[in-house]
Amino acid sequence: MTIRAESVSPLIKTLLEKRGVKDIYKFLNPSPEHLSKTESLIDIDDALKIVSFIKNNKKILIYGDYDVDGVSSCAIFGRFLMDIDFKNFRFVIPNRFKDGYGLNIDRLRNEIEKEPFDMLITFDCGIGSVDAVKYLKEHSVFVVVTDHHLPFDKLPDADIIINPKIRKKEDDSDYFLCGCGISFKLIHALKLAMGLKGFDLKRYLDIVGLATVADVVPLVGDNRILVKYGLYVANSNPSIGIKMLKKIAGVKRDIKAYHHGFVFGPRINASGRMEIADKSLQLLTSNSEAEAEKIALELEELNRLRQKECDNIFDDALSRVSMERRGITLFDKGWNKGVVGIVASRLVERFNKPTILFGTSLDRWDDGFVISGSGRSTQDINLFDALNEVNRIAPGLMLHFGGHTKACGLSINADDFPSFANIFEQVLTRLPESSFTYKINYDLELSLGDVSIEFVKQISLLEPFGYGNETPEFLFKNVDVAEYMTIVNGKHLLITFTDGRNRLKGIWFNYPAEFQLGDKLDFIASLDINYFNGNEYIQLIISNVL
Q1: Which of 42, 183, 259, 342 could potentially form a cystine with 189 if both were Cys, beta carbons 3.0 to 4.6 Å apart?
Q2: C-alpha distances in Å from residue 230, one per residue of 175, 227, 278, 496
Q3: Contact (CB, 8 A) for 495 and 505
């Protein structure tokens, strides 16, 4: 159903304008017609070169990263090749603990010795693999690099490089595509080059939506459209893998972006974090419900173990955080490098400090005295720029590094950890104090009287929500507390607010135990509708009390 801009409330329009939305109609009606032109990212001549390998039945090696984005990218591309009846290909998902991130020369050497291949296509990796691509070219392999990570000064000498960070600008609709979004675009380019007019690409969108949300790329431009239609496919005609993930995770209602980010994504990632990601790839390419259900159960157990490991590392790290330092940089040889990034996110949320945690493979592989770090950042600090500055100050200190503005991965020699920690802190001390000030953001200030069932329902028109298009939050000031009670052993707080004429119920999850309720409150909350006994009522979900 088409939504007219004039049909939404003035408050919704104000909210969108404040968020910088210039075309409200397009935002409210994301359509495949609004996707950026594939030809602006992928030259048709390059697509034809890849098609020639397919038509001549050349051996293709698909090499993807081990996270949900890389695995999803490989899955949809492999499914496309199978759907067009091309079988002369195989997957390689590197072992996080043995092979590390990106193209690993030793792994490539083994693959060539085992079964030579004519073309290698990377997904979600490769933009920094200069030496590995050189090795492949020396062995007469045609190399296609598809990646969305920020490039370094020197690019690999690949035959084809597809990366929006190289040929696009930030205000282009496809600049923020994740690896799986690029894989989808490549499939579209091949469809055009092969003249497959009746071939429906929508079948892959449920997995594209999963990867886009789980990889935490901004849900703007093409990403918003891909996730919106991906959710439609996930709820109407999902692939077997998504169907089984939903079943095993116990999701009863329609899938939303939340489920991709916090339910399905962690289960897909658990395979690569705890073991190798082959299980996740098998799930997303499976044509058997029985096989897919078995794998989904295995991922469920791996995710449970992952959660336990994260909790243990988080508790350990808490005791080591120095409040005097601008950043958090910690290492323990007993920490699993596959999960330290998740813990880093939790520490950033707790302390609002850029955080890099280092771990090892434990007994999964001998790291040879090299430790791997995973970092997460705050609202205002570009982590990739910070690492570039570390590299400028101490070239070679980091053996490998890469990532985004808000997340990074790197490796160093274990003996160099103190030096890295000090130089990273030195880089942070050069930044202005304002970069470290925690900012409480909200979209609009409302009164209780502004909130209606219709208004809350209109907020849903802004979905899917996620990074870059967060769930709207509102400031309420000087509101009376009519009544309150704790639930779930005192962990959460139910509050009824009133302004004398209007009453609204709210819930504050995991509220601070030391918090004391006053007669009036200023607070930040999002809005939801609860359904009970056939009735619907508004619920304020409190995130901050000022």
Answers
A1: 42
A2: 19, 5, 23, 37
A3: yes
- The one-letter amino acid code at 416 reads D
Helix axes 179-194, 222-236, angle to 10 degrees: 80
DSSP secondary structure letter of residue 470: P
Which of these, 436, 401, 400, lies nearest to 328 by C-alpha position? Answer: 436
Going from the C-alpha of 56 to that of each of 270, 336, 456, the distances in angstroms are: 37, 44, 56
Note whether 229 and 480 are within 8 A (CB): no
3-class secondary structure per residue, 90-138: EEECCCCCCCCCCCCHHHHHHHHHHCCCCEEEEECCCCCCHHHHHHHHH
The alpha-carbon radius of gyration of the chain (Å, integer) is 24
How distant is the alpha carbon of residue 131 from its chain centre? 28
| Rounded Cα gap, residues 452 and 502, in angstroms | 10
How far is the CA of 18 from the CAs of 8, 13, 129, 313, in angstroms? 15, 9, 41, 39
Q: What is the pLDDT of residues 319-343, one digit of tens each?
A: 999 999 999 999 999 999 999 999 9
Tens-digit pLDDT profile for residues 89-104: 999 999 988 888 899 9
Q: In which residue are the tokens 């999002």 written?
A: 526
525 bridge partner residues: 474, 542
Alpha helices, DSSP H, located in 319-463: 340-351, 383-393, 417-429, 453-459
- Report the predicted TM-score, pTM, of the whole model to 2 decimal places: 0.92
b/e sequence 434-461, b meaning 16+ C-beta within 10 Å:
eebeeeeebbeebebeebeeebbebbee
Give the distance from CA 339 to its chain's centroid: 15
Q: Looking at this protein, which amino acid is placed at residue 538?
A: I
Picking from 519, 525, 490, the residue whose alpha carbon sits closest to that of residue 506 is: 525
Nearest to 89 by CA among 49, 69, 68, 119: 119
Spatial distance between the Cα atoms of 270 and 522, rounded to a whole number of angstroms: 40
Cβ atoms 98, 272 nearer than 8 A: no
464 prior amide bond cis, ω within 30? yes
| Closest by Cα among 106, 110, 149, 112 to 131 | 106
* Amino acid 488: pLDDT: 85
Give 5-25 pLDDT, tens digit per residue.
778 899 999 999 999 998 899
Assess contact for 351 and 321: CB atoms under 8 A: yes
C-alpha to C-alpha distance for 239 and 75, rounded to whole angstroms: 11
Q: How far apart are CA 416 and CA 340, in angstroms?
A: 19
Separation CA 36–CA 403 (nearest Å):
24
